[in-house]
Design a protein that fits this description.
The complex is a heterodimer of chains A (about 280) and B (about 300). Chain A has about 280 residues and is an all-alpha fold. Chain A contains eight helices and no strands. Helix content of chain A is about 65%, strand content about 0%. The model of chain A has no long low-confidence stretch (mean pLDDT about 90). By secondary structure, chain B is mostly helical. Helices cover about 70% and strands about 0% of the residues of chain B. Classes of the chains: A mainly alpha (about 280), B mainly alpha (about 300).
């Protein structure tokens, strides 16, 4: 069965018991962090969880069509959910890390704009190739009218396909997803960098200037890793392809929020452990 | 002022390197058939269509390029720590990374194709001999350009991340931009060249890829030649724009209002690309028109 034929069950069917277990796990991890590093560690972990949730939520906005999109059989960008979100978010993290010295607010916003800009360029070029390279107009397979522009979609779908290209709502979704993912990744980096800058000098018996490259590298690696964890986790929630915020699969986001929070907390706990023990 | 002029020069150079990297990456992935359209290359023998297309999609382009670029940069970094000249170190690091890519391509082709043995798909030794080196050559260009631009960002522009981490980030972004932009052109326009132009491939046609060329059977080098003209160029422009504009807005405007200047320019550029995208969408709707009349479609 192709990914196109595998119709989503659409629903944001939420399993309350699983959600409750997730929330309990989150509280336990926060409690454990409090016991080993009550002040700075807990604050860093809360920042990491917020950043992870932003990545997980943002990934739902990214219009990904996977293999069917590569044949013009389904709308979206012709690559994997996790990888596209990671590409955009990491581009944002690059900009955010550069602006780290300007303060957390400027850095996080810069990271978000970096991710959004990457997605804006990519989505524009995708439509460019569809329209001028392949002669195919954009059409959504999930809605009759574009929720933003009101353009009718059904008659622009070619025969035997689910739609193709990126309708305007998908473009906007991609940019929003890039912004959230880039900002979330940068927030994780900034939180970890602050923690490592404060703790590494004592741990390594060195001056702050000497430990800075190590702190930047370790925080950067953990930020990239947390990025991939949350993006891949969300890809499982989406199961294959999604058109953007208008897609019925978008309603599944509450599950991903809880899962991302727990996974980020666990990974963040490990990142804090290396300096707290 | 001198600092800004220097920064703009480096930014232009990184943009040019990124454009070449994006173009080479897409062509390499199309010759090796590593992107999402490879689902059809894998599916074709199962539908009874045996072919001579390379098949190495055991990883997506973004993680694969993240690995190869990080590997090339890590080795280059190690060579530089041994006091080797930076350019030579990058070349040596990238050569070693490309050998890993070659091993990956060979084992991936053998593994993926051997798994189709029950459908009668042969493993062609001449394909390994002739195609692998071509993908390696293109991969070298893509990896070298990416590592070189990361070295410029790190060494000349002063980004805090170490070279291997930068290469991992931009390697993943390279794969994401290249696969997003280039895949539809390879998947629809090349593999399904027998389908109507200006329409998506009907789902019922899945697996029936074009297997014959003007003379003899089609091979993957033909695919790279064909897709490079639009898919490869568009991927290059896409990655080049991403790298160039990201650096340009930071170098020129970061000092204005303590970082908010670069943010404002970033927002403005996102709005400009939104307007361009909307123009392209409306242009296509006006010039190509609907496939069916609206009434039928709604019904």
């Amino acid at each position: 069965m192709s990914a196109v034929a595998a119709k989503p069950t659409a629903g944001g069917a939420v399993n309350p018991a699983a959600m409750a277990v997730g929330v309990v796990m989150l509280i336990i991890i926060l409690g454990l962090t409090y016991t080993i590093s009550p002040g700075m560690g807990v604050m860093a972990l809360i920042g990491i969880v917020i950043g992870g949730v932003m990545i997980g939520f943002g990934t739902h906005f990214v219009p990904v069509g996977g293999a069917p999109a590569a044949m013009g059989q389904a709308p979206g960008i012709a690559t994997g959910v996790a990888m596209l979100a990671a590409g955009a978010g990491l581009a944002g993290l690059f900009g955010g890390a550069w602006a780290a010295e300007l303060g957390i607010v400027v850095a996080v916003v810069t990271g978000g704009i970096g991710g959004g800009l990457m997605m804006a360029i990519t989505c524009m070029m995708v439509n460019f190739v569809y329209v001028f390279g392949m002669g195919i107009p954009a059409a959504s397979g999930k809605v009759l009218h574009d929720p933003i522009t009101g353009d009718s979609q059904a008659e622009y779908k070619s025969q035997g396909t689910e739609g193709h290209g990126l309708p305007f709502v998908s473009f906007v979704g991609g940019v929003i997803g890039g912004i959230l993912a880039g900002a979330g990744g940068t927030l994780i980096y900034i939180e970890l960098l602050g923690l490592y800058e404060a703790t590494f000098p004592t741990l390594m018996s060195a001056t702050p200037a000497q430990v800075l490259p190590v702190a930047v590298s370790v925080a950067g690696m953990f930020a990239v890793a947390l990025f991939l964890v949350n993006a891949v986790l969300t890809a499982y929630n989406i199961t294959g392809t999604i058109e953007g915020p208008h897609d019925p699969k978008f309603k599944r986001w509450p599950r991903a929020i809880v899962a991302s929070a727990v996974a980020s907390a666990l990974c963040g706990f490990v990142a804090i452990l290396i300096v707290a023990i | 002022m001198e600092h800004i002029v220097f920064g703009i020069g480096i930014t232009a150079l990184t943009g040019a390197l990124a454009t070449v990297a994006g173009s080479a990456e897409d062509t390499e992935s199309n010759i090796g058939s590593q992107g999402d359209p490879n689902s059809q290359v894998q599916l074709a023998p199962q539908m009874g269509f045996l072919h001579r297309i390379f098949n190495k999609a055991v990883a997506g382009e973004p993680p694969a390029y993240g690995l190869w670029c990080a590997l090339g940069a890590g080795l280059a970094w190690a060579f530089m720590a041994m006091q080797v000249n930076a350019i030579l170190a990058i070349v040596l690091g990238c050569i070693l990374a490309v050998f890993v890519q070659g091993v990956y391509a060979t084992t991936a082709y053998l593994g993926r194709t051997a798994s189709l043995a029950k459908f009668g798909q042969p493993v062609y030794v001449d394909i390994i001999k002739s195609m692998t080196t071509v993908t390696m050559a293109h991969a070298f260009i893509a990896i070298f350009c990416t590592v070189a631009l990361c070295q410029l960002i790190n060494g000349a522009l002063g980004h805090p991340f170490p070279l291997p981490l930068l290469a991992l980030i931009w390697g993943v972004a390279l794969g994401a931009a290249g696969s997003a932009t280039g895949n539809p052109y390879y998947g629809k326009e090349r593999q399904y060249q027998n389908q109507k132009f200006g329409a998506g491939v009907p789902i019922s046609a899945s697996g029936n890829i074009v297997r014959y060329a003007e003379a003899g059977e089609r091979n993957s080098i033909d695919n790279g030649f064909f897709t490079h003209k639009i898919g490869g160029s568009a991927s290059g422009v896409c990655f080049g724009l991403i790298v160039f504009l990201e650096l340009w807005r930071t170098i020129l405007f970061e000092r204005i209002y303590a970082g908010w200047g670069a943010i404002a320019v970033g927002v403005l550029m996102i709005l400009i690309f939104t307007v361009i995208d909307r123009y392209i969408e409306v242009w296509a709707r006006k010039n190509y028109g609907p496939y069916t009349v609206a009434k039928e479609a709604d019904a």
